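Write out this protein's structure.
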Amino acid sequence: MNETFLNLPPGTLVVAIGPGGSGKSSFADAGMFDVVLCLDTLRGEIGGKPGDQSVTPAAVARQDALLEQYLRAGTTVFVDSTNVEAHVRAGLVERARRYGRPLAALRFLPDLATCQARNDRRTPDRRVPDDTLRWQYDQAQASTTDVLHAEGFNWVYEMNPLPEIRFAVITDPDRRHAFFVATTTEDFDRLVGAYASERDLTVKPFEFTDPDVVYETQRWVSGTRRETGGRSPMVMVGSVENGQWVNWNLEAVPPAPSY
């Protein structure tokens, strides 16, 4: 795990806090932690469906047993579930203290509309009921930095949501070369307008459907925006020549697209 990303020592128990659709699992998928304990995954293993709430008690029991094992071994663990209730977090704090492990809380709290939109795109077996999602959101908001420190967390991090992005493809007149770029949604029209003024270039929106490509690009845009003091960047995702990638700047490599 890359503990230096959050300046965490090895053996830290890292607890996600946020409603459904707030980006917890996407963050967990980045591969920065030794072990990820995901309640949805455990529910799926036990009951066959990640959203099967009837097996939640069994999934929680399985999570707790695994957590004991990893804490005993000094493994850095990321607990990927909502954890919006104080009594749930109290159980995690107690276990970490029993084994002398430090504790970090990561607050995931984009706006409610973002959570709702992401939740709506989920498959039915993973979708959270609207009233439950609103309750989770309210509980997460109430779990402030001061509250979490008082509960016993050594560190509390505010995890800024990744920006919404859009892609464009820029082609030369004979369409042998294509350049795939991305920027934030709010700056997309400006990007298209800048290239549209070029006589020898054609620019139009493009959509990558591979979620890994989208997520990596979101992280890239977000990091570049921080480095440039808040300016929204354009990033060059890759370029195609004669139907083949000749340049690709992400780890997830999709087939060369039609354009």
